[in-house]
Amino acid sequence: MDYIDKTPVQVVLVSEICRLGRRVVDVLNFVEMLHEKGIALYIQQFNMLTLENGRENPIAKMLMQMLSIGAEMENNQRKIRQREGIKIAQLKKVYQGRKKDAKTSPTTLINKYKDITELLNKSKLSLRRIADVTRHSVNTVRRIKQLK
Predict the structure, then answer these.
(1) Pairing of strands 11-14, 51-52
(2) Do 20 and 14 meet the contact criterion of CB atoms below 8 Å apart?
(3) How far apart are CA 36 and CA 54, in angstroms?
(4) What is the mean pLDDT of residues 114-129?
C-alpha cells in the first residue's frame, strides 16, 4: 500500500481473485480502496479490468464478488479438512503437535538464527531477500527482526 501511495499506479495486476484475500470483505474493501484512488484492477484469469475510463465495470464487479465468495468457501473447507487430518493423525499417534506451553526464549531464537541476525544488522536487504539468502521463511526473518 505504501508503494501505491508513493508511486503513480494506474493498474494492479492479479492472477486470480483469491490472491487478494481470504475473506470476501477483505477483497471487496481492497478493490474499493483501489477504485477510490482511481486505480484499476486487472484480473488475469478472466482478462478483465474492474475500472474502465474511471467507471466500474459491473460484470467484473459481479464476477469478483462471486469468485471471492467461492475462494472464501474453499479456504474454509481446506481448514476443516486440515483439522480432520490432524485429528486422524493424532488418533494414529503419528502427530502429537506442539507440546503445551512449549516456547523458545528470544535469546535462544536469536542465537539459533545467527545468519538472519547478522544480515539484519549489517545489510539493508529486504526481509524477503534475507529469507531467500538464508533459506528461511519470511515469517522467521520477521520474527527475528521483531525480537531484536
Answers:
(1) unpaired
(2) yes
(3) 10
(4) 91
Q: Which residue has the cell 531464537?
A: 109
The set of cell numbers assigned to 103 is 516456547
User: According to CATH, what is the number of the domain 2-91?
Assistant: 3.40.50.1390
- 76-108 tens-digit pLDDT: 999 999 999 999 999 999 988 877 767 788 888
What are the pLDDT digits (tens) for 30-73? Answer: 999 999 999 999 999 889 999 988 899 999 889 888 988 998 99
Q: What is the DSSP string of 89-141?
A: HHHTTS---SPTT----HHHHHHHTHHHHHHHHH----HHHHHHHHT--HHHH
Q: Which residues contact 41 (CB under 8 A, 6 or more apart)?
A: 11, 12, 14, 31, 34, 49, 50, 51
Q: Are 38 and 56 in contact (CB under 8 A)?
A: no
